[in-house]
Every structure is written in structure tokens, then in C-alpha cells.
Amino acid sequence: MGVKRHILTDGNGIPLAITLSGANVHDKRNVKDTLNS
């Protein structure tokens, strides 16, 4: 098992939101969590 990092940035590459999930979790499940954080 591992960890995935989901990072939302602005146009300049500045991080706006960061969430973590397990490597076995589909990326689609974390889109809402990342956008809402």
C-alpha cells in the first residue's frame, strides 16, 4: 500500500488544496474532497 497526493494549484503553481488518499482508492473519489478543502 502507498499514498496518493492530490494537489490543486492556481495558474502560477501555488498550492490551494492538498488531500491524501490510499494508493488503492480511485482518483475520482477524491476530486470533490480536494475541491471542497
TrEMBL record:
This is Transposase IS4-like domain-containing protein. It comes from the Bacteria. GO terms for molecular function: DNA binding; transposase activity. It holds the Pfam family DDE_Tnp_1. InterPro entries: Transposase_11 (IPR002559). GO terms for biological process: DNA transposition. Residues 2-36 form the Transposase IS4-like domain.
